[in-house]
Amino acid sequence: MSMARRKEMVIVGNGMATCRLLDELVARGGHERYSITVIGDEPGGAYNRVMLSKVLEGAEPDAVVTKPPSWYAEHGVRLVAPSVAERIDVTERRVVLQSGDPLRYDIAILATGSQPVVPHFNGMHDEQGELKPGVFVYRTVDDCLKMREYARPGDNAVVLGGGLLGLEAAKVLSDRGLHVTVVHLGHGLMNTQLDFVGGEMLRRQIERCGMFVRVGRTIESISGEQCVDRVTLDDGEQLAADVVVVACGIRPRVDVAKRSKIPVNKGIMVNDTLATQVPGVYAIGECTEHAGVTYGLVAPAWEQATVLAAVLTGTQSRYRGSSLYARLKVAGVEVASFGVLEPSLETDRAIQVIEERDFAYRKLILRGRQLIGAMFVGNVGQAASLVQTFDRGDALPEDPLEVLCNITGGGAAGGGDRTICNCFKVSESAIVACVKEGADSCEAVSELTKAATGCGSCKTEVSRLVQLHAKPKLAATG
Ligand SMILES: Cc1cc2nc3c(=O)[nH]c(=O)nc-3n(C[C@H](O)[C@H](O)[C@H](O)COP(=O)(O)OP(=O)(O)OC[C@H]3O[C@@H](n4cnc5c(N)ncnc54)[C@H](O)[C@@H]3O)c2cc1C
């Protein structure tokens, strides 16, 4: 019998989900089973989008690249970039590129991510229908390069959106010497992750860093002949503005799926194997909707990529949804949140610890002795162990303040091994083992375990463990 031909796999989108999918496929020998082609509309190889603020700060784009084009060549993966996929011809099994070339596939994977939501305001566009000079979105390396080239110290910036992305952009612009006002429609900052008090604490910390915040407001119109010079808010207030950053949400990028008649609701609908209803077509990452849920953080995209790589290399695996654990460094302030934000039953309890001077905040929401949600602003030491208590459904002690205030950061309720790096699922014990074997810095631990190389939010915790467990260095003798 002749050798079976390698199946053709075409992946649309070369973002963070694809990057992880490729690693997982290579680890399982999938690149020998499939002939893999990746189509990316951004130039170059894959990069770590979570670290984009570095580029906005001034780093070279190479600083965030996770797979240079040489990686693809070395692993026998064909990278077609920059190139836009137009649609999938699901009858002929071809991915059609904007350049016209069709690519035959046995397996097509949509990993097209999200796009910024850009509300329409008067005066926002130029005559060609493009965003007026001075108005930016914040999603790609290209967006960062354009914004950093335009914004000068002494300029005034208005950032629309007080979520993760808006606050991150605001901090970088403020550090670059701009006068920054964040305008946020919700009644508290980061209202997806925080309740009102949490949002207020975050606002005060942010204002202490030198930025200004208007909550419960939005932009009514943007003025300026050739470029932006002023925004008018919905209460009539006018703000001088040379730069406007629109960061008020994302929506799944589903254009290719729609043109291909692949079922889409909010996102591309997938089942527990990440398959769409169309045979041979799968989807992963922020473009998907699984069990009615769309995600906007990298951890779920990576979990989906891992399951799909297993499925397509013949290991039984199912995706059952991701628990939403956000641990983020927002404008220099650590924030963590999971589960519900508020009690919903009359018998639910909420316990709050407010540190007024530091504007730090911790809150647990309990149903009986079960943790159903928690949030932290500034003082996140207990978040990593509590999220595991939450995931396992363990009972909290009679007095939950015991775990909330266990400032040693050591194993909380239920003990056990904490996951320190949520992106790569690296446990405390694995990190301590590396340190005991000689890894004496966060970077050394990262090299061995990949911890802290995803979103980077666990860097402080990894460094703390290194300090705690590293053998003291012998003083050099002369
Ligand atoms: C500034 C910023 C900061 C963030 N910070 C965090 C954080 O701290 N923590 C966290 O968990 N998450 C964070 N995120 C979210 C995180 O980046 C995303 O969850 C992650 O990138 C999702 O991966 P993805 O592959 O689904 O989408 P993407 O990484 O967006 O990749 C999709 C790729 O597909 C391409 N594409 C789309 N359509 C086509 C087409 N038709 N043809 C060819 N290519 C196409 C897109 O251009 C893009 O390159 C941040 C995002 C941004 C923008």
Report what the structure shows.
The strands form nine sheets. This protein has a five-stranded parallel β-sheet with strand order 5-2-1-9-21. The protein has a five-stranded parallel β-sheet with strand order 11-18-12-13-14, covered by helices on one side. It has a five-stranded antiparallel β-sheet with strand order 23-24-27-26-25. With 478 residues, it is α/β, with parallel strands linked by helices. It contains 14 helices and 29 strands. The structure holds flavin-adenine dinucleotide (FAD). Flavin-adenine dinucleotide binds at residues 12-18, 39-42, 49-50, 52, 84-85, 111-114, 138-139, 164-165, 168, 253, 256, 285-286, 297-299, 301, 328, 455.
Quick synopsis:
The chain is of the alpha/beta class and 478 residues long. The chain is built from 14 helices and 29 strands.
How would you describe this structure in keywords?
478 residues, alpha/beta, five-stranded parallel sheet, 14 helices, 26% strand, binds flavin-adenine dinucleotide
